[in-house]
Specification:
mainly alpha
Length: about 700
């Protein structure tokens, strides 16, 4: 019964939103349009329950007992480490956990023992194609990492769907919105469950297509259509690197199946022995794909413009779906990255640059959703900083670097979703106005929105004991450990660690700048809001409350208890490592930075100040920040305009050179026809004369032949 349930649950997770998409498209589009949300909400509830069961099924039965022992090890490590260092330098060899249907024994009391291995569950839907030795089935595969992702995706998607049922209620494209959203969630679930790289790439592209449909949902607006095209084109640049990486994996290993590549170290060990440098190329190509999806510099410019879509789309993309795909890809490929320290340094450096650029840009934005968009880009940078930190000490840091990146992704999903949906509630109440220069003092008019936004803002700022505090602190801690490792890359990671602290301070500042400008100061409403704006109705308020609760307690529930870390460690193929103790010095420093950022924002914006008028001029420094460091303008001047000029030149060449040559070829039969045209004049006597000349010629030829004979 258990095995049958596992095999059916794994396909039910993506099948439910796919069925909802089909139903909405074929039925709800034409009958009872205002109930089009119900199939999706029901489907997401089914997928969520299935994901919870799958999350339980992929870990061994000894998980609870071993988790208690794991916590004891951490406590002992905390006591031993004190404030000296962030990880134990134990003599351990990297290990790759193998999947095993049998339940492995619980590790003994050795703190450096290999963790209990989880297992993967696979389900083959059908044979896609087989060409030569390349066998690519449509296989769904779930392990601890993908199960965690599915719980996050389905939880957030379900709450966003409920919120959207009220938020989008009067939109004429109501069924179309939920059909596209259902297809989006289906594609994301399939991406997470893909059992090989090619299938992952297919749904990687499907997620990109759905984002194009949702960002450009209001395609009548030129800005929305342009934002959708921008997102689509920029992501194609990254996807080109991804597919090249997949081709290189195939030519190097002879397979693209996750189970063969990651659960059995034999193939990887063979390539390590024969051609270790190939891992750097593979990992960099895969990271290019991740840069596009997860909006990392220099491919980050599409994400802020994605705010042109409906706010539930922004919450879905930024919190739990599309932008997390790149983080998931790099984490999934950690058995490759552990052998490519140069690629890991690049990943961490790009993440740091992205986080810093986005934080600087967010400091002066007045569009509330755009502030949150840049904060998403910045927080994704933190995740990539963590994923690359193992380059300094792969043996001890790889598992922790991956775990902490995924932990921050998990907590970020909750507080970023509540922030975006709260911003949507503000926009809903303000008559679709989201510019903070047109309103202020909304805490009394919108009490539900105010308290939920505050919960998310505190978590994002890293306020002590809230979700963002636990996850971001772990990333900063592992960066500090990398900077103190004594490796050739230690100085690089020391700089990245220092910049991560600066970004943490800036995050707290710009988050509460937006909070104070929106909810404090004199009460002002735009004309579009009327005199009495209404707070979130129940269908919007319930998801806000639940997400706010997650922003408050998810981190402390699974962070210091080591539940999340121990769960992710059950992923087959994830290199083993000794426990990572808490760094109380780093926690104290993070607390100081968060409170300092909030205090600075209060001093500048929280004591009754309002945003300047829209027409007020900006200082050069503020303009530099407000315009995103002029990167869009730089891309326009260096890339877009030269390509447009080349396209125009190609058009002129095609029109005046290629077309003329083709026309000349077409003119040849016409010229030949003109030679014979005088003879075809319709006069019978001319035709008779020509026949006579022809006959005479024939007779002359016959006479000459006989005379010669």
């Amino acid at each position: 019964m258990s095995e049958w349930l596992q095999q059916n649950v794994i396909w039910l997770i993506p099948a439910a939103p796919l069925f909802a998409c089909v139903w909405i498209t074929l039925v709800s589009q034409f009958t009872r349009r205002q109930l089009a949300h119900r199939p999706l909400v029901l489907a997401m509830f089914i997928s969520w329950l299935s994901a919870l069961y799958l999350a339980y099924a992929v870990v061994p039965t000894t998980f609870v007992e071993h988790g208690e022992h794991h916590a004891e090890i951490h406590a002992a490590g905390d006591h031993a480490a004190g404030s000296h260092d962030d990880h134990a330098h134990a003599e351990t060899t990297p290990a790759v956990a193998k999947a095993d249907d049998a339940h492995p024994a619980v590790a003994g009391h050795d703190a450096h023992a290999t963790p209990v291995a989880g297992r993967s569950i696979t389900f083959t839907v059908y044979q896609w194609f087989k060409v030569g030795t390349m066998d690519v089935p449509v296989t769904l595969r779930a392990d601890a990492m993908s199960a965690m992702m599915l719980v996050m995706v389905t939880s957030i998607s379900m709450l966003v769907a409920i919120f959207a049922s009220s938020y989008m209620h009067h939109d004429p494209g109501y069924p179309r919105f939920f059909a596209a959203m259902a297809l989006f969630v289906f594609s994301m679930c399939m991406l997470v469950l893909s059992g090989n790289f090619l299938l992952m790439f297919v749904f990687w592209e499907a997620v990109g297509l759905c984002s194009y449909l949702l960002i450009g949902f209001w395609f009548q607006k030129p800005s929305a259509a342009a934002a959708a095209k921008k997102a689509f084109v920029v992501n194609r640049i990254g996807d080109f690197g991804f597919i090249l990486g997949v081709f290189l994996i195939w030519t190097t290993f002879g397979t693209i199946d996750f189970q063969q590549l990651f659960e059995d170290p034999t193939l990887i060990n063979q390539v390590v022995a024969s051609n270790p440098g190939i891992f750097t190329t593979i990992c960099l190509l895969l990271f290019v794909g991740a840069m596009g999806k997860s909006a990392q510099f220099p491919l980050h410019v599409w994400l802020p413009d994605a705010m042109e879509g409906p706010t539930p789309v922004s919450a879905l993309i930024h919190a739990a779906t599309m932008v997390t795909a790149g983080v998931y890809l790099v984490a999934r490929c950690s058995p490759f990255f552990v052998h490519a320290p140069v690629a890991q340094v690049v990943v961490s450096a790009i993440g740091c640059a992205t986080a810093l650029i986005a934080a600087i840009t967010a400091l002066t934005q007045y569009d509330l959703k755009r502030v949150l968009a840049y904060s998403t880009v910045s927080q994704l940078g933190y995740m990539f900083m963590s994923l690359g930190a193992a380059a300094a000490d792969p043996e001890h840091l790889m598992q922790h670097a991956v775990t902490f990146a995924l932990f921050h992704m998990f907590t970020h999903a909750f507080f970023k979703a509540v922030l975006f949906l709260s911003a949507g509630s503000v926009m809903h109440a303000m008559g679709d106005i989201i510019d903070m220069r047109y309103f202020s003092g909304l805490r009394k008019a919108l009490p539900i929105t105010h308290i939920t936004f505050l919960c998310g803002a505190l978590a994002l700022a890293g306020f002590p004991l809230l979700s963002g505090f636990w996850s971001k602190d772990e990333i900063i801690s592992v960066l500090m450990a990398a900077g103190r490792s004594g490796s050739p890359y230690a100085s690089v990671f020391l700089l990245i660690w220092l910049l991560s602290l600066v970004v943490s301070l800036m995050t707290a500042f710009y988050t509460f700048r937006a909070y104070f400008l929106t909810f404090h100061g004199p009460e002002r409403f735009p004309e579009a809001a009327g005199h009495h704006p209404h707070d979130a109705p129940p269908a919007m308020a319930v998801p806000l409350y639940l997400l706010a609760l997650g922003a408050l307690v998810v981190g402390i529930a699974v962070g210091p208890t080591h539940l999340f870390a121990h769960y992710v460690h059950q992923t087959p193929g994830l290199p083993a490592a000794p426990p990572h103790p808490m760094n109380f010095l780093m926690m104290g420093l993070s607390t100081v930075l968060a409170i300092a950022g909030i205090a600075a924002a209060y001093m500048m914006y929280g004591r009754g100040q309002t945003a300047p008028a829209p027409e007020a001029p900006l200082s050069p420094a503020a303009a530099f920040s407000y315009n995103g460091l002029y990167l869009d303008q730089l891309y326009l001047a260096v890339i877009v305009l030269p390509l447009r000029a080349l396209a125009k030149l190609s058009e002129l060449f095609d029109k005046h050179v290629v077309d003329r040559l083709v026309d000349a070829v077409g003119l040849t039969p016409q010229l030949v026809g003109r030679v014979f045209r005088p003879f075809q004049n319709g006069l019978v006597q001319n035709y008779a004369f020509i026949m006579l000349v022809g006959l005479a010629g024939c007779l002359l030829w016959v006479v000459r032949v006989f005379a010669a004979g």
